[in-house]
Amino acid sequence: MSDGPGDATVRTARLDLVPLAVAHADEMAGVLADPALHAFIGGAPLTAPELRARYERLVAGSPDPAVVWCNWVVRLRAGERLAGTVQATLTDDGRTAEVAWVTGTGWQGRGIAREAAGALVDLLLARGVRTVVAHVHPAHTASAAVARAAGLTPTDGEQDGEVRWERTASRDHPL
């Protein structure tokens, strides 16, 4: 994947997926401040300085040259407000991507995660990714709906109590 997909701004009907920058930390700290966002993934909301430090690490890139981190903030064009994030971790020379998404509590239920995750998966497949994977807690029905809408299907695989969802390029983007 010669042009890194993480460098691309992706536009959808309502959203821009903007490559993550440290400058996003202050606004994103508010977006991600609800402890309920951690019900399925554990942990607690990060403060703005903690999130800034995390974003500095993410923007610097993976210390493993075989792993590429791609991170975007999700911006609603109407109102120019950030609403969440999407991310992809690329391995296997860019042929496999593990994806994740989070939408702030105040923006949930509006199809934002569905639209953002779908655009992310489409971008990855268009850029040569062959297998897209997500891990979803079995009780997290909203996240399962997002995975399904992005074309992923549940498998029998599990990791850390989460179901492995997968989409392969052969279904949509043949070699």
Task: Tell me what you see in this structure.
- 27% of the residues lie in helices and 31% in strands.
- By secondary structure, it is α+β, with helices and mostly antiparallel strands.
- It has one domain (5-172): Gcn5-related N-acetyltransferase (GNAT) (Aminopeptidase), CATH 3.40.630.30.
- An 8-stranded mixed beta sheet has the order 1-2-3-4-5-6-8-7, with helices on both faces.
- The relative contact order is 0.16.
Q: Within the largest sheet, what's the order of strands?
A: 1-2-3-4-5-6-8-7
β-strand number: 8
Order of helices and strands: EEHHEEEHEHEEH
- Shape type: globular
Mean pLDDT, nearest integer? 93
Provide the low-confidence segments as ranges: none
Report the span from N to C terminus.
14 Å
Query: What is the fold-level CATH name, i.e. the topology?
Result: Aminopeptidase
Number of H- or I-type helical stretches = 5
Biggest sheet, in brief? 8 strands, mixed
Q: From the alpha-carbon coordinates, what is the Rg to the nearest angstrom?
A: 15 Å
For the record, the count of structural domains works out to 1
CATH level 4 superfamily: Gcn5-related N-acetyltransferase (GNAT)
CATH architecture: 3-Layer(aba) Sandwich
Oligomer kind: single chain
Helices and strands: which structural class?
A: alpha+beta
**CATH class type:** Alpha Beta
Topology:
Elements: E1 10-11, E2 15-19, H1 25-31, H2 48-60, E3 68-76, E4 81-91, E5 96-103, H3 112-126, E6 131-136, H4 141-149, E7 153-159, E8 162-168, H5 169-172
Parallel strand pairs: 5-6
Antiparallel strand pairs: 1-2, 2-3, 3-4, 4-5, 6-8, 7-8
Helix pairs in contact: 1-2, 3-4
